[in-house]
């Protein structure tokens, strides 16, 4: 900067050597519901409690919008430790409209699998996305309250 060239010497500032901080990846909280077995309809309210006690059921997961399929699979496996038994054999479904038991519709994955952007778009801010095992059936016996699945739950 050459202060002699400027009438207002206050305009002469040294260039900032600090690079701008890159903003963090945008995440969207999406509710997921892990089902215990392949089914065509959403679970009955009485079954939801049983699934929740087994470490399945509904949980809200922060999904990075730039996440690829593997990252999403890892995030869901951390949220639902029982998903490791599925060895990647799961699909996402969405229930349309209404209340009570509803028909589940397949969310078709992209060529590279499910991505953060596609999940945010498919979810649309309503309801939740259902994780359905393709071949296996997950154990639904109640877990002790000290189980890993309950560590992230809010305390009363």
TrEMBL record:
Taxonomic lineage: Eukaryota, Metazoa, Chordata, Craniata, Vertebrata
Protein name: (Atlantic silverside) hypothetical protein
Region (Disordered): 16-41
Domain of life: Eukaryota
């Amino acid at each position: 900067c050459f202060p002699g060239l400027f009438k207002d010497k206050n305009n002469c500032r040294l260039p900032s050597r600090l690079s701008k901080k890159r903003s963090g990846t945008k995440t969207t909280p999406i509710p997921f519901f892990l089902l215990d077995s392949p089914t065509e309809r959403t679970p009955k309210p009485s079954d939801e409690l049983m699934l929740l006690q087994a470490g399945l059921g509904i949980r809200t997961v922060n999904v990075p919008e730039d996440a690829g399929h593997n990252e999403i699979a890892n995030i869901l496996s951390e949220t639902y430790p029982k998903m490791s038994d599925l060895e990647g054999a799961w699909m996402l479904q969405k229930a349309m409209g209404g209340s009570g038991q509803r028909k589940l519709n397949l969310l078709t994955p992209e060529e590279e699998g499910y991505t953060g952007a596609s999940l945010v778009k498919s979810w649309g801010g309503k309801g939740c996305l259902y994780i359905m095992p393709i071949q296996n059936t997950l154990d639904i016996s109640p877990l002790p309250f000290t189980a890993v699945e309950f560590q992230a739950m809010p305390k009363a």
